Amino acid sequence: MPAAEDKHARRKQRPDQHPERRSAHPGQPPEQRFRDSVGRKAARKQRARASEDRSVFFWLGMFGMVGWAVAIPTLAGVALGLWLDRTWPAAQASWTLTFLLLGVALGVLNAWFWVRRESGGD
Questions:
Q1: Kindly report the CA angle at 50 between 53 and 39, in degrees rounded to 5?
Q2: What is the largest CA-CA distance in the chain?
Q3: Are 73 and 82 in contact (CB under 8 A)?
Q4: Is the pTM of this model over 0.85?
Q5: Contact 106, 73 (CB under 8 A)
Q6: Could you tell me the residue ranges of all domains in the chain?
Q7: How far apart are CA 15 and CA 25, in angstroms?
Q8: For residues 42 and 37, what is the distance between their CA atoms, to the nearest angstrom?
Q9: Burial level of 52, CB count in 10 A (0-12/13-18/19+)?
């Protein structure tokens, strides 16, 4: 099956591969390439966090992310509460209201976590 081996060899040497996937130093062991890659990504992340020049689009994105971080757990709580109200109706309490409040609380905690993380309060 030399043809199959040639096919795999050609696939590995395709020039149109993504440049970050190709090793800058093909003679290096994989562990060293991995360390170099992680180091470059960490340095890029530190430079991005050090840059205080955040545009209005960053803050609009943050606003949208906070909205979704609260909305998704809230809607999930309402859906679970409605299902529980249909399955096991409670005479004294509403499952929907209970899980609505739990969903909102979870969403607010989630949003607080993300805003704190993005504002550098780690």
A1: 135
A2: 75
A3: no
A4: no
A5: yes
A6: 18-53, 56-118
A7: 16
A8: 9
A9: exposed
Buried b (16+ CB within 10 A) or exposed e, 5-36: eeeeeeeeeeeeeeeeeeeeeeeeeeeeeeee
Highest mean pLDDT among 42-46, 50-54, 80-84 belongs to 80-84
* Residue 100 near residue 77 (C-beta atoms within 8 A): yes
Q: How far is CA 76 from CA 2, 56, 87, 101, in A?
A: 55, 30, 16, 11
Q: What is the pLDDT of residues 36-47, one digit of tens each?
A: 899 999 988 888
User: Predicted confidence band at 91 (pLDDT cuts at 50, 70, 90)?
Assistant: confident
Measured CA to CA in angstroms, residue 87 lies from 81, 94, 96 at distances of 10, 12, 12
Q: Per-residue DSSP letters for 63-83?
A: HHHHHHHHHHHHHHHHHHHHH
Alpha helices in 1-122 (DSSP H): 2-12, 30-50, 56-87, 95-118
